Amino acid sequence: MADDATPARDYRETVFLPDTPFPMRGGLPKKEPEILEGWAALSDKGLYGAVRAARQAAGAPLFVMHDGPPYANGAIHIGHALNKTLKDFVVRSRFALGYDVDYVPGWDCHGLPIEWKIEEEFRAKGRRKDEVPAAEFRKRCREYAAGWIEAQKVEFQRLGVLGDWWNRYATMDYSSEATIVAEFHKFATSGQLYRGSKPVMWSPVERTALADAEIEYHNHVSPTVWVKFPVRAYDEEHFSLSGNKDGDNVFRLQPNDASVVIWTTTPWTIPANRAISFNPKVEYGLYEVEALEENLEFAPWSKVGDRLIVADKLAEEVRKAAKVASWRRAEPVDPTGLICAHPLATFDPNPDGGYGFDVPLLAGDHVTDDAGTGFVHTAPGHGADDYLVWLKSGYALDSIPDTVDPDGAYFPHVPLFAGLKVIETEGKKTGKFGAANGAVMDRLIEAGNLLARGRVEHSYPHSWRSKAPVIFRNTPQWFIRMDQAVPTLGGQTLREVAVKAIADTAFHPEAGRNRIGSMVESRPDWLISRQRAWGTPLAMFVDKETGRPLIDPAVNDRILAIIREGGSDAWFERPDEDFLGPLDPVQYEKVVDILDVWFDSGSTHAFTLEGRNDSASPADLYLEGSDQHRGWFQSSLLESCGTRGRAPYKAVLTHGFTQDENGEKMSKSKGNTVEPQTITKESGAEILRLWAAMVDYSEDQRIGKTILATTTDAYRKLRNTTRYLLGALAGFDEAERVPNYADFPPLEKYILHRLWELDGQVKAAYEAYRFSDVIRPLIDFCQGDLSSLFFDIRKDCLYCDIPTALRRRAYRTVLDHVFERLTVWLSPLTSFTMEEAWTTRFPEAGSNVLRVMPETPAAWRNDAEAARWAKVETVTSVVTSALEVERREKRLGSALEGAPVVHINDAALLAAFDDLDAAEVFRTSAATLVAGEATGAFALDEVKGVAVEPKLADGKKCARSWRILPEVGTDPRYPELSLRDAEAVAWWDREHAV
Asked: Cβ–Cβ contacts within 10 Å for residue 709, how many?
């Protein structure tokens, strides 16, 4: 047994323990701002400027990442933090890979959210928007946006995001607005722009048209109505007496008593009805009511004898809705040529201005017999399909009625319903459906033409900003054509050019290609005009006589010059003469609509990347959330394809949305939001960065207290590994370095192999933007190969070997290689900690971010050592388990009291220990390896051919290394030490002799 008597000398001072000022606790909330201050002082553009200057001096290749602009409205949220952190990973990793990276952060400034805020401000002061001069209103919008740009900039920089913050872009900058207008002029002059009157998504609450990208769908409960349209006339060729003695011809009786039944979820559009659509491929029939359901709480609106025309496939559903007990199918019906009366004609039979007009039946492929009645109520001013089938059937644009005004109310000329609201736009009921639906249904009942009604929950379009329902409304708007051949595009259409550009673009993940591709292939013409105050104008004039845009280079030049000098406000404030020059203002109409904000942001490549010597277009990467396939990615694609014939990007990367820990959408009303400012204040931005690095950003991610606690634990392990490296390398210099690979022991060769292996993995993952494939293997490396294996085996060597010993020098040389690589590999992700570590060890070497990932020698690859140590660790797992049992049973204190006998009945496993000290590998004082099997020894079921006899070590306990060896006491100079420790202490005594 060991002799545990107190030694005569305290040998602790002779042990070479790790030493570093790098603290165990990060203190990140305090430390990170200090690091940021140091970075800011490196150049007139801080760390970003210093790194760019260094890369440019080295002739590095250029990498351009264009920033998708966040909206300058409010503090940043967790989605902003994820987005900007991922962009920072790209910027920093490309710097570390040796690129010169151009990244200019920017902001989207125009649009409704800011306009609403300013409207609220003025309302609070008792002023309605229409009482505020446009110049004053726009000035306040500009001030508001400018304030939030500065606030968000500070928050983004606090996260450690590198970029050219000193030359940030904003869509409201005068130069930006001038370029946006110039891009708009390109569409006008190339013939891709046109003005059309067609139904568009209209937000009464916001009082503007909305593009597809501004629409989101939510479940909504709508009223449903089955409405009878009495047949007024028919085509004789399609109908004749049937010869049936009961006279079952559809139109036998006078007056015509059959009705076509439609079904709709928008009763408010009935006043705008001008036709009924049917599908010639659907089978229809005439059904005569024979009996009604009884004992109901109300009398059905249907009557015995009613003759109703519906699709055969849907007849049973209509019968149940109408509370009809029984009916009979009297005749098949071909709706071709039918003409109906409007269901409200009885109240105002005037065909001009009333409801006395004919309602024709029109054939349309959009009609199905999947739901409803097989007929579609057609209001060409309130539906895309309705509009198309109306025009396709030969009716003129000017025959489409205007029934609903911009505020969502019926125009004064609409009979019966003038002034009634479809959607409320003021007060507590803002965004709710108004009285229109109910009023229309009441009148239909009174007219005897409401067959049934109900309610249905369905997906309904809402404004993504106001969250209020929208309506289809016929308005004059400006569009960019998707399907007209354009000479400047080589005779191709914009759609064709865009589809080809998508095929030429790399997508991360690849599924993004199909997503944006399907949208572009099926999207309508691009609606680019808005009827609001805060935005970049469609700065052009229209000839009053022809209605066509004025295409005059001199006029356009004057427009651009004035906007470049005074911003787009000048368009609304300066007289027309200033722009038109010698042309007569009386002949021209100034367009005062503003551009869709997606056109603004879609043009950012033109004024951010082009015209600069240190940037290039197209950009190497666009990176945003997956919703931007319908937003910024698409508007940028269409804008660039329409003006340049190509995409503005070479690659597109998308990330998912951040949810709470339960996978639910975050909402302030739910109280489940996670604020980045709180994380930064309490734990540090590094924790947020590590979370972003560890998640699979391509999918929706989760965050919350438990997840952040797990992230913090992972950070703590990384920091402890870093701290150990710094401490173990204290005082290391070139004189100590082992230069020749052949001199390294097997364990050191294995760790060098792992560095070679990781070098390829890390660089490939960064190149492909797979950040979790960087951090997770490196965390595993730190916890497995380093802490559990390398550090643990070599701690005795580090602490107790003589400093000049080859084994110790080799160990510290490899630690230096590990430190050199880990600090640069992890720098893009855990930037603050790696900066702290690097400058702790090399305070005069400059920022860690200035470094480029070093080349790893191919000679470090050693598949044989990798295979060896896989086998060694297999055997070690059995030994460790055996010693654990001994400790649990109190037969063993520490592993150093053990001297296991290990029986190995596997030649390959046994051979793995050639040239190794088994006791050192097992972390015991002694060990014996025996070839063959052992009866009754400890074994693991999952490891065949290995058995362990956990014997105790023989000898005395060394007072310095605590190993138990027979040789302890054989050196008379140091009778309490092993021979190795005696030599180390003798060296120490000589070095410290007075």
From this structure: 11
Cβ contact 744:738 at 8 Å: yes
Cβ atoms of 67 and 87 closer than 8 Å: yes
Query: What's the rounded Cα separation, in Å, for the pair 947 and 933?
Result: 7
Sort strands 658-659 and 701-702 into parallel, antiparallel or unpaired.
Answer: parallel
Q: 409-413, 459-463, 839-843 — which is least confidently predicted? A: 459-463
Query: Is residue 698 within 8 Å of 654, Cβ to Cβ?
Result: yes
Token pair of 616 as six digits:
């290039």
What residue type is assigned to position 32 of the chain? E
Number of Cβ atoms within 10 Å of the Cβ of 137: 22
- Name the DSSP class of 12: G
pLDDT (0 to 100) of residue 268: 87
Query: Helices H, strands E: what count in the chain?
Result: 29, 33
Q: Please report which confidence band the pLDDT of residue 467 belongs to, taking 50, 70 and 90 as the band edges.
A: confident
H-helix or E-strand spanning residue 851? none
Q: 885: closest CA among 939, 946, 926?
A: 939
pTM for this entry: 0.84
- List, in order, residues 6 or more apart from 477 with CB less than 8 Å away: 195, 196, 197, 198, 200, 209, 527, 529, 593
- What phi, psi does 268 have (nearest 5°)? -65, -15
By the 8 A CB rule, do 849 and 47 touch? yes
Q: Reduced to 3 states, what is the DSSP secondary structure of residue 282?
A: coil
- Return the SS3 of 457: strand
Look up residue 841 and give its two tokens.
């060890």
Gap between the Cα atoms of 412 and 431, Å rounded: 22
β-partners of residue 261 are: 228
- Quote the CA–CA distance of 806 and 405 in Å, as a whole number: 88
DSSP-based three-state secondary structure for 201: strand
Tokens of 810: 């080799």
CA distance 528 to 236: 47
Residue closest to 867 by CA, chosen among 753, 947, 791, 943 = 753
d(CA 276, CA 362): 6
